[in-house]
Predict the structure.
Amino acid sequence: MSKQRQSVWFLISCALYCCFDSFADDYDPSRFEKEIIVPVCIDPVQCEITADGRVYFIERAGALKTVEPVSKKVTTLGTVPVEMTWEVGLLGLALDRDFARSQYLFLFFSPKDQTNTMRLARFGLKDGLLDLSSEKVLLEYTNDWTRTHQGGGLFMAANGDLLLGTGDNMYPIPELPVDERAGPGHMDSQATSANSMSLRGKILCIHPTVDEKYTIPEGNLFSDRKVGRPEIFAMSVRNGFRQYEDPKTGYMY
């Protein structure tokens, strides 16, 4: 490109920049503004913010960390031993609705000592640190940790129901993940997300109880255990990773 053309394009770019910049909104303190509170993380996955502004977050390698609201100091509260291959690791975090008193939190992860397993467990904090000995396993299911689509997002609803998104445990192929050929079906989600007896490829909904177990909330898909797992709230999900409750309507997204 000649110097003359370069000069023309430069002038056009400057004109466009000035044109669009003139439409930029003035700073409005009532609107959300981005603030970097942790400049360096290693594969952060999910976070929770308490009423006093303290941030709890997890890293996929197993660390549970907290950020103090005033000083912004980051503290590692503990590390869960996890299998970290492909997409597995520490994937989900949810604080108990009465966290300020109970100090309970829920984690979803692949335990290091159980290959091909995904686990949902409750832990407690002791003296402000993660107490690994307090682990209470709520549920587990078998998966293939060498594949992708592990899901993992946790969400605690206002009524105390705990939602967990699980992936279909298939590779991210562009075509329909259905393979009915004889032999191992490596790309067949009919065995996972479309299978009512599998917890993979689902949105699960349970209600943790004080006796370290859980009940099944009303509204789940299957009341007959011979037809499907009662924990299933929604099925045929490709890679459930986040859930959210509309505080006004109670609808789950």
